[in-house]
Amino acid sequence: MAKAETKSVDRASIEMLEKAASEGVNTAFDRAETMKPCPIGTVGSCCSNCGMGPCRVPLPKGKEETPEEKRKRRGICGATAETIAARNFIRMIAGGAAAHSDHGRGVAELFLAVAKGEASGYEIKDEQKLLQVALEWGVDIGNRSNQEIAIDIGEKALAEFGKQKDEILFLRRAPLKRQELWRKQEVAPRGIDREIVEIMHRTHMGVDQDYRNLLKQGVRAALADGWGGSMIATELQDILFGTPAPVLGEVNLGVLKRDEVNLIIHGHEPLLSEMIVVAAQDPQMVELAKSKGANGINLAGICCTANEILMRHGIPLAGNFLQQELALVTGAVDAMVVDVQCIMQSLPDIAQCYHTKIITTSPKAKILGAMHIEFDEHNAMESAQAILKTAIENFPHRGKNIHIPDERTDLIAGFSHETINYLLGGLFRASYRPLNDNIINGRIRGVAGVVGCNNPRVTHDEVHVTMVKELIKNDVLVVQTGCSAMACAKAGLMVPEAAAKYAGEGLASVCEAVGIPPVLHMGSCVDNSRILMATTAMVKDGGLGDDISDLPVAGAAPEWYSEKAISIGQYFVASGVFTVFGVNWPTLGSDEVTKLLFQDFEEMYGGMWAFEPDPIKAAHLMIDHIDKKRKALGIDKARERILYDMAMRRELDAV
Ligand code: XCC
Ligand code: SF4
User: Fold this and answer.
1) CA of 205 to the centre of ligand 2 (A)
2) Using alpha carbons only, what angle is made at residue 282 by residues 279 and 288, rounded to the nearest 5 degrees?
3) Which residue in 84, 168, 228, 303 sits closest to 568, CA to CA?
């Protein structure tokens, strides 16, 4: 087995990998070493969509391949490498869009139940956003109560999923030019469910066999995710739980406490975690913990649920995706409660080596070997209390082999699109004007969204951190979500002091003037919709073109693993953003499909995909793209000047 230091750049994770090895615990890091990826599957050339297969289409031979040979590279049904790669790719989009959107649907269902007074313990926290969505969706405000307005919004939100003909409502948030482009390309999505079902239909054997037409449906479903399912999730969560504002937090396994009951919340939907946060503050619960010999109750998060409760409550982050197993290896986790997505089936098995209870809560996500306490939002508090009690009662069963790595880092999170608005423009003149101005005058070169997962096929966190450092060094402001945000938070990039330490002179000067870090945490993966809103706000504020594709911005998911990442990447590309992925690229088995995604899409959508596993090279692809856009906007000269002009520097000191 390879040395632990080669598997992660995170000290805490390395320590836990060493502990796991000495205790004979097998993790995803080990499994990735013994299970080599299938070379044909990796490039999207393996089809198992029917019982005549699976068909493994040989890899393209490159330039020497004769047309005759190429014609023979087919599945049994005759499907070409193009069709197979395109089908596989859009099935990934369907999986990812379904995950985000079903999350959004769950929020909408709860939202409606709360509005109807059927879900006690929840309330409407952000009235301003409630009214804003009401205005946008044509819900009558008049002198109706919040409850009445919320019922209409909840019903409209749920109807978004099953709309048969009309476009989804949030599409209208996009710049007008973008909306027109989508309509012209025939990708403006109808109901979210409909687009996902249509992918499953078209990719069945013998249906859509034109890779361009398949990809078009992929784009449509991805847009239904970004501007639909994910945006509904984010907006309704904000109304119910509060729109995030800057908050100080801590990240890494060192947030676990030796003398307190440690309950880790892992997964994605804040419906459950919000209630656990409330239940953990109940004096009776704290008393119960004390009666078991603990000094209190310590909550910590893993994966996107962690981001949700950090943003809204300052609950610490235990770690990102690849730390879920490692958290158990500390021996100090009394229970880990999970809901949906990114939860490894190995958890109950590893938990057996320690004392940890793994608790599933969703009827959609049970795991053999875990205990199940179903989360019922109509009795949410009861479910939350039962989960907490399980953790507390398990505290006395801790074993002897406890080791919590002494690693934790401060971060500031909570940069919702609204927060950025306030911070930059001030409470009374909230706007993106200062951001746009600083981009135009070249202090900020552009904005990059770096998001997504961990993947044990690459060194844990290394690719995220290297890429983001390179970007900020080159004056690119970075916004982040998901596990990528946690990677960079652990590396100390999400505190204001990071600006002076790592950022280029222009970016650092702006960060220091405003008091923000050079890397902004915008939330969970459904919150990538916040980045869509932020880019739209930049367009609407003026001076940077009239479409998202005019902006000097770029996106990346350098350690992606999830189908959700593919859906996210595709909706960014189709919204006009150049997006680069690392690790591997799932269409390399077809030159035609890859060319469509990497080149032709630029003409069609103003945004395109790229693949570059080297983080420095990938960062420079993004920077080159940003510079290309600056040039097209005629603001490339301003940047040259800022680098040399002392008078401008003095003026800036006066800010
Ligand atoms: Fe999952 Fe959302 Fe990926 Fe992290 S970043 S591994 S999807 S938790 Ni969303
Ligand atoms: Fe093979 Fe075609 Fe069936 Fe896919 S659909 S498994 S390519 S026969």
Assistant:
1) 6
2) 100
3) 228
Would you state the structure tokens that stand for residue 107, as one six-digit string? 């929020």
Tokens of 11: 């000290």
Q: 43 CA distance to ligand 2 centroid (A)?
A: 16
Residue type for position 609: W
Alpha carbons 561 and 559: distance in angstroms, whole number: 7
pLDDT tens digits, residue range 227-283? 999 999 999 999 999 999 999 999 999 999 999 999 999 999 999 999 999 999 999
Q: How many CB atoms lie within 10 A of CB 275?
A: 23
Ligand in nearest proximity to the CA of 485: 1
Which two tokens mark 166? 């009309």
Name the residue among 453, 147, 156, 102 with its Cα closest to residue 271. 102
Instruction: Select from 549, 555, 551 the least CA-distant residue to 467.
Output: 555
Q: Do 93 and 567 touch, CB atoms closer than 8 A? A: yes
- Residue 402 is given by DSSP the state -
CA-nearest of 204, 238, 200 to 79 is: 204
Q: What is the pLDDT of residues 520-530, one digit of tens each?
A: 999 999 999 99
Q: Are 497 and 411 in contact (CB under 8 A)?
A: no
CA angle centred on 92, ends 182 and 176, rounded to 5°: 15
Task: List 556's β-bridge partners, or say none.
Answer: 450, 580
Query: CA-CA distance, 216 to 68, in Å (whole number)?
Result: 28
Q: Is 75 in the pocket of ligand 2 (CB under 6 A)?
A: yes
Residue 646, C-beta contacts closer than 8 angstroms, at least 6 positions apart: none
Q: 273 by DSSP, 3-state: which?
A: helix
Chain centre distance of CA 133: 23
Per-residue pLDDT of 329-352, as tens digits, reads 999 999 999 999 999 999 999 999
Structure tokens at 351: 């938990």
Closest ligand to the CA of 73: 2
Please identify, by atom number, the ligand 1 atom nearest to the C-alpha of residue 321: 6
Displacement of CA 613 from its chain's centroid (Å): 19
The conformational region for residue 101 under phi > 0 = left, psi -120 to 50 = alpha, else beta, is alpha
Number of Cα atoms under 13 Å in the Cβ half of residue 589: 29
Structure tokens at 424: 């930059």
Q: Encoding tokens for residue 404? A: 């919590």
Cβ 53 under 6 angstroms from ligand 2: yes
Q: Map tokens 């027109």 to a residue.
A: 180
Q: What is the pLDDT of residues 176-187, one digit of tens each?
A: 999 999 999 999
550 CA to middle of ligand 1, Å?
A: 29
8-state DSSP, 336: E
Residue 22 exposed, middle or buried by CB count within 10 Å (0-12, 13-18, 19+): exposed
* Pairwise CA distance, residues 533 & 530, whole Å: 5
Phi, psi of 318 (to 5 degrees): -75, -30
What lies within 8 Å, CB to CB, of 425 at 6+ separation is: 431, 432, 433, 434
- Residue pair 363/375 in contact (Cβ under 8 Å)? The answer is no
Closest CA to 93 of 44, 140, 58, 131: 44
Rounded to the nearest 10 degrees, the angle between the axes of helix 230-241 and helix 270-280 is 20
> Minimal CA–CA distance to 307: which of 386, 389, 227, 249?
249
* Pairwise CA distance, residues 84 & 86, whole Å: 5
Choose one of 321, 323, 339, 561 to mutate for the ligand 1 pocket test, by most ligand atoms within 8 angstroms of C-beta: 321
d(CA 524, CA 421): 19
CA separation for the pair 237, 486 (Å, rounded): 21
